[in-house]
Design goal:
single chain, 357 residues, alpha+beta, Copper Amine Oxidase, Chain A, domain 1, 2 domains, six-stranded mixed sheet, five-stranded antiparallel sheet, 11 helices
Amino acid sequence: MRILSILLIVSCFLGGCATITTREGISTYTLNGATYISLTSFCDLKGIKWDYDTFTRTIVLTKGAHKVSLRAGDKMALVDGRSKYLANPVDIYQGTMVIPYSFKEILSGVFSENGSYVYRRQSASRRKIRKIVVDAGHGGHDVGAKGKMGLREKIINLDIAKRLAQLLKEEGIDIVFTRSSDRFITLPGRVEITNNCGADLFVSIHNNAHRSRSVHGFEIYYVSPTVSDYDRAVYAAGHAKMNIPSNCFAENSRELKEIIWDMTYTYSRAESIALSRAICRKIDNETNAKILGVKNARFYVLRGAKIPAVLVEVGYLTNLDEESYLKDGSYRQKMAQAIKDGIDSYINEVNLADAAR
């Protein structure tokens, strides 16, 4: 009988019928080796409103300005509009929705009086930045800007891009070129390469031109705020493939895809600004270039990229002094080095910000 009792207890644990009560009075359950708690009991205890849709098996939690959406069978939750992956899927047990015990602390933070849960900027080390797209502007029949002494932008762009790529490779970064020779690549082609190669950052190298030959200096661009993240998200939801598990409920929901794409674009814009500033600071510190600053624009490659993306204008070929500088390989190397150092600085800033939390 004792052996039978032990077998029954073990079978209960394995089958998911083991029940333990926490100090807060909420029952916990062991399902497939993981510990769960009753979500509705937790909500009642914390004064969180909940609304369950039996058709979609989705529950929405609200309290104050905070909102969390979950669905039975999925490992992803939307926490105040941001995706959060759970260690184990949300489940239904004994007619009630249950969540992994580890998710309880996140919910407690989200719905606490002071809103103590903070969405943490993911560090570069966690994102594992391993691949960067280096885009040499123009090429082939598209010469780009041309200096009075005959210097052609497409050639300078490619030279600086290759120097930058080599410096990044020396630090173990994989490089994807949109072009590695003097050939023409369409703007949609550049965007397609960027979005389909699994890269983490996009850096486009250009040189500028102006009707006034006195204009000179370095500037860097990120995508303009006038470019709607929502509009891009709506388009991407219907045309772009999402890198999410096939069994995730967002995979089959156009609305949720739009939300996730919107978050992706918003995140990428913020990171693009941070990357722009980091590169600009290094150019200012390490070169004698006049700094024209960090700016925004509606450039096609910036609008189309789904990852943090910047476009660098190294100098003005229409300015005689800068054209002369850009003809010098040592100057181009110095500019490539400063851009690379800016990328390093961006990564370090993210790591420090994450460590400070």
